[in-house]
Amino acid sequence: MNIRRIGAATAAVALALGVSACGSDDGGGEDQLKVGIKFDQPGLGLKEGNDYTGLDVDVARYIADKLGTPEDEIEWVQAPSAQRETLLETGQVDMIVATYSITDSRKEKVGFAGPYFIAGQDLLVRSDDDSITGPDSLDGKRLCSVTGSTSAQTVKEQVPGVNLQEFGTYSECVSALVSGAVDALTTDDTILAGYAAQDQYQGQLEVVGEPFSEERYGVGIAKGDTEMCEQINEAIREMISDGSWDTAVEENLGAAGFTPGEGNPPEPEACA
Ligand code: GLU
Q: What positions does the domain Solute-binding protein family 3/N-terminal occupy (predicted)?
């Protein structure tokens, strides 16, 4: 059976019947590892033609290699923030490496290995606007974030007076910020640094630089797959100890002038 050609509902049935939905061996010669990443976040997960770049992409490649999957057997799948749990629950992806914060509510639906990186929520503003200096100055402002993200959730709780608009992707928020349709964009400092450093926005956008949350990036996997979790954690530890983590962080985030904050590199949590 070719898992890639059957629908989500069928995949769920296949799971219920005990048929393996794992991309590594489903008995039909299908040996792709399906990895969910972002396609529009420079420095983290970016698709340009057939080229995939970013820290998440490099972390996924390293893990896949340790799991015995060569790079040409990885199938990259776009994983927008609001769809990540569903993609894992339906077996449409085997793992997600997509600026995916480990949270208790997500853990009710999916499993997490890691963390492999610690980021913090921040704000992106237009360089000529000095009225926004942190969450305290957001009352009445038009703020953009993404549906299904911790960023939108946190800001709703912390700043009830903000005028929040939720889009499907952060790149849509960046366009709205540049055009003046919103006053600021909120998400992880890593993501914001990547947009601010893009050639077409040179000098136009600025990260405020006062992170107000802790985002622990995990590798999303099927809930309850402890063996997979342990293998991924071991790969993350190796990536950190052999210097590949430092290289990947420098190559992907260094160009945007981003230096990892406190807690990096992190120690993966015990698998539940
Ligand atoms: N790390 C946060 C989250 O997982 C924000 C970034 C994102 O939406 O991917 O929700």
A: 32-256
